[in-house]
Amino acid sequence: MANTRTSAPAPVSSLQRAAIVTAIVAVLPYVIFKILWLSGSSFGSTTASGGEGMLTPRFLIGNTITLAMMVTGVAFVVALTRPWARRIPAPVVFVLGAGAAGLLGPILLGLPPGILIQALIDGELRLPDSGMHPWVFGLVYSGFCALGAAMAIVVGAYVIRRWGDLLDTPPPAPSLIMTVCGVLGVLPFSCAMAVWAIAGPGSTGPQGMEQPAQRMVLAATALLGFLSLLCPLLSRHLGRWPRAAWLVTWTGCCVVALQGPTQILLAQGGEVAPVVTGIAVLATPGASLYGIAVLRTHLRRQSPLRRDDAKQPT
User: Fold this and answer.
1) Among 191, 201, 199, 244, which Cα is nearest to 221's?
2) Higher pLDDT residue, 121 or 228?
3) 154 SS3 class
4) Buried (b) or exposed (e) across 277-297, using 16+ Cβ within 10 A?
5) Closest CA to 5 of 200, 221, 160
6) What integer best gives the mean pLDDT of the chain?
7) pTM over 0.85
8) Residue 17, SS3?
C-alpha cells in the first residue's frame, strides 16, 4: 500500500495547547527583564549602577538579539500548531528547530538534576557573583527549562506528523570522510565538556560555570555530544528505537554546533578562554557536517524505497 498523506490539518491536542501557554508564560519574565535593561534600568541588579552597564554596546546588542530569539521561539511554537503549519518551508523548521534544540537542550536536561545535586551537596543554591540577584536567574532559567519542554512537545509532534515516515529507521552512519569530520569536531568538544563538568572549568573552560548545577549543564552537553556521534555508528543495534535515536542524534549535533559559539558570546565579563574558542572552531563545522551527512545519507537510502512503495497498487 502506498503511503497517503492528508492535507487536512491535524487537531491540536490538549497537551500542545498546554505547551503553547507554558511557552508564553515561561518567556514573559525574560522579555520584561530585557525590555527594562534595554531602557537602562538596573532592575534585578545588585548595584544601583547596573543599569549603566546595560547600555554598553556589548549588552545592548546581546539583549536585543536574545529578546528577538525569545519572541521568535514563541512565535515558532504557535505557528507549528496553526492550520497552515504544513506550508511552513522545511528549511525554516530545520533552522529554528536546530536553534531551539542546540540552545535549550543542555539547560532542560542538565539544570534540573544539577539544582537537586547542588542542594543535596551544598545545602543551598549559590551562584557566582555576576551582578544580578539570584531570583533573576531563578526566573530566567526556570523559564528556559519550561520553554525547552514546551518546544520539545510541539516541535516533536509536528515533525512526527509531517515527516514521521522518515523516522521509522534509525540514523545511518555517513561516509568515512564525514564520520572523520564528526569525530574531529564532536569528540574534542565533548571530552572537554566532560572534563570541565567533573573537575570544574578552572581558567581554561567556560567562566562562571563553577557551581554543581552549572557543571551538570556541561555534563549534559558532553553526553549529548558523545551520543550524537555514536548513534549513527551503532545504527544496526538501534532498530527498536529509531525515533529515540533520531532525537538524540539531532539534539546532540545541534548542541555541539551551537554551544561553542554560545559560550564565546556569553563569556563572563567578555573574557573568552582560548581553549573554548579552539574547540568551538572545530566543533561547529564538524557537528554540522556530520549531522547533515547523516540526514542526507538517510534520505538517499529512503528515496528508492519511497518510489517503490508509490508504485504498489492501492
Assistant:
1) 191
2) 228
3) helix
4) eebbebbbebbbbbbebbbeb
5) 160
6) 88
7) yes
8) helix
